[in-house]
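User: Fold both of these, please.

Assistant: Here is the first one.
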Amino acid sequence: MDLKAREEEYFFKTYKRLDIEIARGEGCWLISKTGERYLDLFGGLAVNSLGYNHPKINEAIRTQINKYIHLSNLFLQESQVDLAELLIKNTGYKKIFFSNSGTEAMEGTIKLARKWGKEKGKSELIAFHGSFHGRTMGALSITGREKYRNGYEPFLQGSIFSTYNDAQELISKVNQKTLAVVLEFIQGEGGINEADAQFVQTISELREKFGFLLIADEIQSGIGRTGKFFAFNHLNIAPDVVVIAKPLGGGLPLGAFLGNERVADVFTYGVHGTTFGGNPVACSAGIATIKEIVENGGMQNAENIGSYLKSKFNELKLKYPNLIKDVRGRGCMLGIELKHEGESLVTEMLKNKVLINCTNTNVIRLLPPLILTKDEADFAIEQFDSIFSTLNK
């Protein structure tokens, strides 16, 4: 059997795989076993912020492997502490917990919030329609997309949904029992929807009045992707807890949540833990990743190349008004909303050697590596233009 047949034989049907066998990656490009080169504009779904085979990440991994690959979290681990210090210094938060993934970090955050709110009589979590916070039962309980929820009921008690960017509806649902509001400042799976400033201001005012926690899901939008370290840094607000993952481990499994002084002393020894979370090799790769993004221009390039791409897509919107409905997002987290379903465009772009992703049926989601160059962006735009021109006819 070939690889595809073997995969179908052995795996549960959870992933609709692309029909390409990848041999290696270089920068923003993936090279197939037959030698074809593909420009990757969804970068491991926001994981590969520095592309593939980045020398500093590879070196950090090799160095740590030669020391040890795993230690129990009962031991002090230098790479863990170094990465924690780097994140705390760059974000201003007080405490951190490392996990294996974004979903697991969200689960830990829910536990942190519940423990914080227990004696305060607060138990209700408010999330938003269109949101995506993970696939485990706690995270799924606050994920506002029926596509992922259907069939897994019943969910976590006290989970409430409100309409994204609808301040009046949120006001009607917040009360003294509200434990936390969980928000993606840019919804990823939901179609690259941005929280508007007035909506965020309302959340801030409600938090002041009712004393709940604000939890920011920055799993997809965080660590420089939008041109700032966090997406909420574009707005005048500071969440109490921030959940991060995807690019954090430089391609290795790593997630975390950061908390401010309100939650800094909630956990005590033994009440939460993980076997593999904060793996020393992943943390070493994370240190190299954060330094490149923050200190060596990755975040600035994300802002610059993202603005360039957005301007080019807006030109295509003017050129093809019957095909493109909207262009939105920040930095290297962009959405092109089409006036038709998007999977056919994904297929055509694949033929043109550009990898893109479609979410929410008709939104092309772009999450390119932050190292994307202008020449590579121009190549992608040329392919979009060519296909739109054909569709337009």
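And the second sequence with its predicted structure:
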Amino acid sequence: MKETLKKYAKRYFIDAMGAMAMGLFASLLIGTIFKALGMIPIPVVSGFLTELGGYGATIAGPAMAVAIAYALKAHPLVIFSSALVGYMANAKGGAGGPLAVLVIAIAASEIGMLVSKKTKVDILVTPFVTILVGGILSATIAPPIGVAASWVGSFIGWATEQQPFLMGLVVSVVVGIALTLPISSAAICAAIGLSGMAVYGGVASLAASNHEGLALAGGAAIAGCCAQMVGFAVMSFKENKWGGLISQGVGTSMLQMPNIVKNPRIWIPTIVASAITGPLSTCVFGLKMYGAAINSGMGTCGFLGPIGLILGWFGGVYPETVTALDWIGLFLICFVIPAAVSLGLSELFYKIGWIKKGDLTLPE
């Protein structure tokens, strides 16, 4: 019984989750990087890269579901059918889209495999069953998963109204954790308008109320997300080298989720880093986000967190003068402090045996 549980735990929480992160990276996150490159003003090229990046977000659900089915060693027709399942699950799941895709794609793939290659009309039966099961689950359980993810947003919304130290601590840690979990921190930040700037009907205007608190909270959110991505990239460098540094530091810390499931202690250094950089952001450097709220939940993915902060400074409505302290704070909060804290704590954990060689190795 114990061995069976281990087998399925590895299958669903390590293999499938690792594949889902890869699928997310190969669609939404690489698309985000293209969009960031599209900000460079190069005639024709900029527009093409921005458009290409937009399509990456569109196919994130199918990419994750197909990756999951592939990791489960599903038959080809099950894998191909998972694309539609993933699209619907991600769309219905809202901020919890990636988690919905993980749960539903696993269920649809496993049930699809029960009928795959069992009949003479397999080309009809397998896609029909896989997509029907995935569709029913997407319609019934994906929305509640999205609602559960939105509770995180409600908690963050409460935190934005607290005094700066508590706000910085809570927002940084919670949004940073959300970034690494299979839920969308960017969608949560966008949904609650985590920026001093709100966008209504495509027209930018100052948020009607609490824009100062939202601006500080947006800066703290960026701090927490950067702490996760930069932290994991640096502390796992000895195992993953430059490829791991780039894929986590510019891609997503979600790649570490299978390893976190195996050894949750590897998450402590980056969470501590978030808990340090958040209050520093709000209380010491006063980093205020007046860019797009969605960028508050992006961290260093395509460097869109820091880029969003900078664009907000020079967007025409930032109420203060940008000083050298702002630039120093940005660099320290987003890169230097997360790297130093995470690396220092991880080295301590290696010495006391909380982290062992191989614990941070990314799945191939």
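The CA atoms of residues 102 and 328 lie 39 Å apart.
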